[in-house]
Specification:
The complex is a heterodimer of chains A (311) and B (279). With 311 residues, chain A is an alpha/beta fold. Chain A has helices spanning 49-56, 77-81, 98-108, 113-126, 142-153, 172-187, 199-205, 223-228, 243-252, 270-282, 297-310; strands at 2-15, 21-29, 32-34, 38-42, 64-69, 72-73, 83-86, 160-164, 191-195, 208-213, 216-222, 231-237, 256-259, 262-267, 287-293. In chain A, strands 7-8-9-4-10-11 form a six-stranded mixed beta sheet, sandwiched between helices. In chain A, strands 1, 2, 3, 5 and 6 form a five-stranded antiparallel beta sheet that branches. In chain A, helix 3 (98-108) packs across helix 4. Chain B is an all-alpha fold. Chain B has one domain (3-276). Chain B has helices at 2-15, 18-37, 65-89, 92-96, 102-106, 112-146, 151-178, 181-199, 212-224, 228-237, 254-275, and strands at 38-40, 48-50, 53-54. Chain B has a three-stranded antiparallel beta sheet. In chain B, helix 3 (65-89) packs antiparallel against helix 6 (112-146) and helix 3 packs parallel to helix 7. The chains are: A alpha/beta (311), B mainly alpha (279). The A-B interface holds A 13, 54, 57-61, 77-78, 80-81, 83, 85, 87, 89-91, 93, 95, 104-105, 107-110, 152, 162 and B 1-2, 4-6, 8-9, 12-13, 16, 98-111, 276, 278-279. The complex binds adenosine-5'-triphosphate and magnesium ion (MG). Residues 49-50, 88, 164, 195 of chain A line the site of magnesium ion (MG).
Chain lengths: 311, 279
């Protein structure tokens, strides 16, 4: 069974009282997320990442399309019982301590009263807030609130965890700690759905990703699939490339960057590399070395956004 | 369990609001004042003393002094209680709807109906706790120090809390639509004022025009909105009839019954709106 399955999920927001405006936040999004995996949803600001999660948790209602989460159609109580959610902006009642906050959210999840105290203690230790357990949350820093938010999302031992920018405002050590927590959860069988801009983090822990742009899915696949789709080569030359050769090469391959005696090429397959080398050799330019560079998710993402914008 | 979790939380939120802490202090001062002042005469048992001097009306031999005092106390404190109450609870719905709070609440396995009802019931209970503190305090002081155990005075709290629960339906609707505590307070006060004017429509508003349509509209408005003012004034009649007025109005359940329907209607509207909005 898939943890999340959506078909043509669409959301149009209507805003404005007098001059009504339609915002197409999501446009026919069909995604599926495997159980037990870490899934990353990427995309520029306003792409619809948060909206997607809100629809799945019935915080907003879809305009059309269907979705099921853990086998339940959206809107069912049993679905929410098995999900945890860390929203992108989250506020906690300042008059409660960290422990009381977790106890309160545990109650909202319907957990037995007797288990709440131990659960709160365990979770605060897990997210590194052990020493702050009895401090009112109004005294917390941003990163501490973020850690509390993660603990809150874990209070019901969810099967599926939605995290919207979980490491926002957290220091580097804390980010590593959070990543470790997520990987441990995954190993214990939890499915994790991650919205993030931090592509290097996504790359480290996600199995699969989908890229959203203006409400539409533009790519899906595993990180390996996406980042090995294109090859980056650095070619060191014996001399500078004459202008004629540059023009020649640019006709055939548009993603070339020239820098002194260096040529960086982003290519779709190896045969393109050979054709570049042929052209260079034919013009009498010596090749000193060729190195293949691994494409990072960030390189891929930026490249993709450029291509999408060009279209 | 979930419902009660939210309910308990809301009571906590009401009690910890600055306005109600202020109310609590003021109420405590009054209670201390009364506990020092009220007593029983040593020579004439059964006669109330205020700071040592006997309180008896020679001109009205049959006057029940304790009851008279309790009625006066009730009707003069209700105004302040309304003031504090509205300030204390008006923010509850807008606070819940703030970005970052509503996302969390709605992601929990709690239906929107449960959420709003827990919130409303919590608000009414929070107010009840505050009211009971003051009223039960006064009741105890009169009982322990003057030997007057007036159950009617104690039970009048129920009617005030009920009136408040009905008023909260207005606050809930205002909070859901405007999402602002300030607007909710404004609307609640306007409503209290309107409810007071509508109560006086026969002796005041009807004089403006003889047009039967105008009268009919005012009447209709009076019956379809919670009769807040009538409920409050009736609540003091539970204690006893005011001996100072010649033809004292009798206690009637009617405003409570009418208001039950109009408040239900308003809560229905609030639930309908809340259950279909995107947050
Ligand atoms: N409640 C709402 N009412 C109206 N429009 C909304 C609402 N929520 C989101 N939108 C619009 O929907 C679009 C998608 O917003 P969303 O918050 O899903 O983006 P996002 O991908 O999460 O962006 P970010 O990376 O900045 O968090 C935006 O254009 C936004 O203006
Ligand atoms: Mg977002």
């Amino acid at each position: 069974m898939e943890a999340i399955q959506t078909a043509d999920l669409t959301k149009h927001y209507r805003t404005g009282l007098l001059n009504k405006k339609n915002i197409n936040a999501l446009e026919k999004v069909s995604l599926s997320v495997e159980q037990g995996s870490i899934f990353g949803l990427l995309g520029p600001n306003g792409a619809g990442k948060t909206t997607f999660v809100k629809l799945l948790l019935s915080i907003a209602f879809p305009t059309s399309g269907t979705a099921s989460v853990l086998g339940y159609p959206i809107g069912q109580r049993a679905l929410k019982e098995q999900c945890g959610y860390l929203p992108e902006s989250h506020k906690y009642p300042g008059f409660l301590t960290a422990t009381d906050t977790l106890i309160f959210f545990g109650r909202l999840n319907g957990l037995p009263e007797t288990a709440l105290k131990d659960k709160a203690k365990y979770l605060l230790e897990l997210v590194g807030l052990k020493d702050w357990a009895d401090v009112k949350t109004k005294k917390f820093s941003k990163g501490m609130l973020q850690r509390l938010g993660l603990a809150q999302a874990l209070v019901n031992d969810p099967k599926l965890l939605f995290l919207d920018e979980p490491t926002d405002g957290v220091d580097p050590v804390g980010r590593k700690e959070i990543r470790d927590i997520l990987v441990n959860l995954k190993n214990a069988g939890t499915t994790i759905f991650l919205n993030s801009h931090l592509l290097s983090e996504i790359e480290m822990i996600c199995d699969n990703v989908a890229i959203l742009k203006k409400g539409c899915v533009v790519r899906t696949g595993s990180i390996a699939d996406l980042t090995t789709q294109k090859l980056i080569y650095n070619i060191q030359l014996s001399a500078q490339i004459p202008e004629d050769t540059k023009v020649n090469l640019s006709h055939k391959h548009f993603s070339l960057e020239f820098k002194d005696t260096n040529l960086a090429a982003t290519l779709n397959d190896k045969s393109e590399l050979n054709s570049i080398i042929d052209t260079l050799r034919a013009d009498g330019i010596g090749i000193e070395g060729v190195t293949q560079q691994k494409m990072s998710l960030e390189d891929y993402f930026i490249q993709l956004m450029k291509e999408e914008n060009r279209q | 369990m979930r419902f009660w979790g939210m309910f308990r939380f809301t009571i906590g939120e009401t009690i910890r609001r600055g306005v109600l802490i202020f109310y609590f202090c003021v109420a405590t001062c009054f209670l201390i004042f009364f506990s020092l002042g009220v007593g029983q005469s040593a020579e004439n048992p059964g006669v109330i003393t205020i700071f040592g001097s006997e309180f008896a009306h020679e001109s009205m031999p049959g006057l029940n002094v304790a009851e008279f005092m309790l009625i006066q106390l009730h009707s003069s404190s209700v105004f302040w209680i309304v003031l504090f109450g509205i300030f204390g609870v008006a923010g509850l719905i807008p606070n819940m709807l703030e970005k970052g709070t509503i996302d969390l609440f709605l992601s929990k396995p709690l239906t929107r109906t449960e959420l709003l009802l827990a919130r409303s019931l919590g608000a009414a209970t929070g107010i009840a706790v505050n009211l009971v503190y003051f009223f039960a305090g006064i009741w105890l002081i009169f009982g322990l120090k003057a030997g007057v155990w007036h159950w009617g005075f104690l039970s009048s709290v129920i009617y005030v809390v009920y009136a408040f629960a009905c008023l909260f339906s207005i606050v809930a609707v205002a909070g859901l639509f405007t999402r602002s505590a300030g607007f909710s307070i404004l609307i609640a006060f306007s409503f209290v004022l309107i409810s007071w004017l509508l109560e006086l429509r026969e002796s005041l508003l009807f004089l403006i025009s003889d047009n039967p349509v105008y009268h009919w509209i005012l009447d209709a408005f009076y019956y379809i909105t919670p009769q807040f003012n009538a409920m409050l004034s009736n609540s003091s009649r539970v204690i006893g009839s005011n001996p100072l007025s010649l033809s004292p109005p009798q206690f009637t359940f009617m405003p409570y019954i009418y208001s039950f329907f109009s408040a239900s209607l308003l809560y229905g509207l609030a639930l309908w709106y809340f259950s279909r909005r995107d947050y």
